[in-house]
Request: fold
Amino acid sequence: MAKITKLDDIVSLCKRRGFIFQSSEIYGGLASCYDYGPLGVELKNNVKKAWWKSVVQMRDDVVGVDCSILMHPLVWKASGHTDQFADLVAECKKCHIRSRVDHLVERADEHTEHIALGVAMTKAQDLSNKVCPACGAVGQFTEPMPFKLMFETKMGANVDDSMTVYIRPETAQGIFANFRNVLDSTRIKIPFGIAQIGKSFRNEVTTKAFIFRTREFEQAELEFFCEPGSDEQWYERWKELRFNWYLGLGVKKENLRFRDHDRNELAHYAKACADIEYRFPFGSGDWQELEGIANRTDYDLRQHQRGMRTLNKWFENDRDVTKIELAPEAEDYQSGPLSYFDDEKRKRYIPYVIEPSAGIDRSTLAFLVDAYDEEEVRGETRNLLRLHPALAPMKVGVFPLVKRDGMPEVARNIYNDLKRHFNCFYDEKSAIGRRYRRQDEAGTPFCVTVDGQTLQDKTVTIRERDSMEQVRVSTDHLLGHLRDRLEM
Ligand code: GAP
Reply:
């Protein structure tokens, strides 16, 4: 029977093989922050490359941007984050640990990654019989209170010009703020998308499960702008495309599903939202959000038009967004500065937006969990990562069978040649079986071994990670053979 993968297996493999480390570990660690090691950074970069290839490179209707993390404070006022991006928390009067109210009440973390903007604040909850997850005290909670999730910092060296700015909690707003720039600098026409991968930061009340929910994380977001009326079709299309992306990278179908949000879960701007969920191995195996796909309507662009109209008020109020209200929407907002003019249909409108929003760290965790396997081979346990070749940190391991008879020199030449094409790893230490096992654990799809026969007939063995089957290939055909099998 297949072994059920536990998160502990993954955490220990990640540490042992240099995928992921606790941040600041030599100082006892910084909670919920992680560093990617030599193999981890390759894996994570491959996840990003695969996303970019599918969402930007292979499409004629999507362009990319890379926006700054710090943005004008009015961006967050307009988007609603300054006033509403908060979790409702209650503090245990005994241990003073705060818990998310939705987690206490209905364990909504099994379903909802984030309480949508504006939804959390409206829920009144009875906590009189609720148990503190930290100390076990019953009914000891304070009244629920909002806890703001955006990190703040000060910008500017002089007292007079320093102001509070926010460290972005999502990459999406950089895209909305550049909608006009992209339109004016490219000849792209609606329907089109703007994509971005980058870091986001949230002062999460509860972090959990390794890199699943952290305070610093990376997002891959697409804002796809379309004509109102065509939004429902695009929403369905992007749901399908994003689901298939995970399947195409080898995630098992039985571990993926959609979950449509109920009406009362939707943020006030969203017309529809669905999560792609993955069956993560926390506890007994929970379905958890991997990615959200939302129909954000024309909300964000309209809000930013209001934000632009608020600029004077912001200057007049010490550049402090907490002191001001957003200006009302202009009556002719449909022809405002963030509107789009369709020259074929001769009409102007604020586009609707479909947003597939993925977590790079979270999908990296899902790929690791899904690929992890243990099997018995000749009385020994073989641990391996059956990663898709596009995601594997190293594509090929190159070894001399033994460290003599000229084999290392030939193997080094092959390695030097192959590494111009793929990430390769050269190893001549320890027994060949152990070297194979190390590459199995690193997820390397192929190992090339130079042996005595190589010196006579210029052939090498290629060993495949999953089946452990070996074939002999002439060195002249090695590159082409690997290319075909790696699909690169
Ligand atoms: N722009 C929409 C947005 O940010 P979200 O559901 O809050 O929506 C999108 O986040 C994705 O970002 C999530 O599905 C998840 O993969 C990832 N994500 C969100 N918060 C995270 C956290 N604290 N740690 C790791 N990943 C997170």
Remarks:
- The longest strand covers residues 286-297.
- Confidence is low (pLDDT under 50) at residues 108-112.
- The CA atoms of residues 68 and 480 lie 41 Å apart.
- The pocket of glycyl-adenosine-5'-phosphate is lined by residues 113-114, 170, 172, 202, 204, 213-214, 217, 219, 221, 289-292, 355, 357-359, 361-362 (CB under 6 Å).
